[in-house]
Design a protein that fits this description.
eight-stranded parallel beta barrel, binds 3-hydroxy-3-methylglutaryl-coenzyme A, two-stranded antiparallel ribbon, alpha/beta, binds magnesium ion, 12 helices
Length: 323
């Protein structure tokens, strides 16, 4: 059980600009991406992903990541107190991140061999060997590193994943000296029991016994409607970092059937209602996501956002204009 539940505070790690957009079928204009990122930061998001230094031919929506960092350098995107991260799969990705001036990166592997191969073209062992060099060099450059273990609960190719298998990969990533590891339900199959089975031992081992040397985050996709329940289960066992995506955008192009992430609006609504601080202003966040959904020309999956949109319409309030 958690030392304290509900916790006083949850760190919301916003993945909308990366996980959210990487799976969009239609190209998202660079200017709209910057507006979305700025709206999220202005709503109080303190940590967010801005892109991915992966192969642009494989993930075209992330091909403009250098340009996004250019906007940060030029002041067109103002981070303020927010910390930005980008996915880095290998040395080439790290070199791109360094050249772009990134101060935070996230390396990513999987709990299952088939998904690691499909996603990053490496076995789990190979990915960890590559990350050892990436992490060491990032540390030399004072770049913050986060890690992901995808398919921690289920895999589109191998089915159900045994908790000990996922836990073992998290432990191997932690041994590389990565201070924060996000445990991913890539295809949204987890239920709260599975979350407890994987995350309770990790929190005990890494956050309690080792004095918070490695922090554990939860990354839940909402494909089967269990993401919010899973987030709550994770909090109950002591997880205090939760990944989520504006409007519930998201999905992985290499995971058939994967849909959006836990929506940031739904998460913040829950946190507000439980008196848990996130630092995010739900009204500003919702206005940003609603405006972005209009730019995309479709409603987003966040339930809170849908209710917000209906309420705005009923009151005839023209919310959702991105500045
Ligand atoms: P590869 O083809 O195996 O790499 O790709 P390679 O080393 O064999 O190189 C082949 C070519 O790619 C070379 O170019 C390299 O220079 C180039 P050539 O010499 O032929 O002209 N290359 C690169 N170009 C740009 N940036 C790079 C890079 N690396 C090599 N970093 C690689 C391996 C990992 C790069 C590739 O498989 C890839 O980009 N995969 C995309 C993975 C991805 O973005 N997946 C989605 C995000 S993960 C996710 O969504 C899950 C998560 O949300 C958590 C969860 O939900 O569980 C994080
Ligand atoms: Mg994801």
């Amino acid at each position: 059980m958690a030392k304290r539940f509900p916790p006083r505070q949850i760190e919301v790690f916003e993945v909308g600009v990366r996980d959210g957009l990487q799976n969009e079928a239609r190209a998202v204009r660079f200017e709209d991406k910057i507006r979305l990122a700025q709206g999220l930061i202005d709503a109080g998001v303190r940590r967010l992903e801005l892109g991915a230094f992966v192969r642009p031919d494989l993930v075209p929506q992330m091909a403009d990541t250098e340009r996004v960092y250019g906007a940060v350098r030029e002041g067109a995107l103002k981070l303020g107190r927010a910390k930005a991260y980008a996915l880095v799969p290998n040395r080439k990705g790290l070199d791109r991140a360094i050249a772009a001036g990134a101060k935070g990166i996230a390396v990513f592997t999987a709990a299952t061999e088939s998904f690691a191969r499909k996603n990053i073209g490496m076995s789990i062992d190979e990915s960890l060997a590559v990350f050892a060099e990436v992490v060491a060099e990032a540390k030399r450059k004072r770049i913050e590193v986060r890690g992901y273990v995808s398919t921690a609960f289920g895999c589109p190719f191998e089915g159900k994943v045994a908790p000990k298998k996922a836990i073992a990969v998290v432990e191997r990533l932690a041994k590389l000296g990565i201070p924060e590891i996000s445990v991913g339900d890539t295809i949204g199959v987890a239920t709260p029991k599975g979350v407890v089975d994987v995350m309770a031992p990790l929190v005990t081992r890494f956050e309690r016994k080792s004095g918070k040397k490695t922090r554990i985050a939860g990354h839940f996709h909402d494909t089967r409607g269990t993401a919010l329940a899973n987030a709550l289960a994770a909090m109950e066992v002591g997880v205090t970092i939760l990944d989520s995506s504006a409007g519930g955008l998201g999905g992985c192009p290499f995971a058939p059937g994967a849909t959006g992430n836990l929506a940031t609006e739904d998460l913040v609504y829950l946190l507000d209602g439980m008196g848990i601080r996130s630092g995010i202003d739900l009204e500003k966040l919702s206005a940003t996501s609603l405006a972005f959904s209009r730019l995309l020309g479709r409603p987003l999956s966040s339930r809170y956002l849908q209710a917000y949109a209906s309420a705005c319409e009923a009151r005839n309030e023209p919310r959702g204009a991105l500045r």
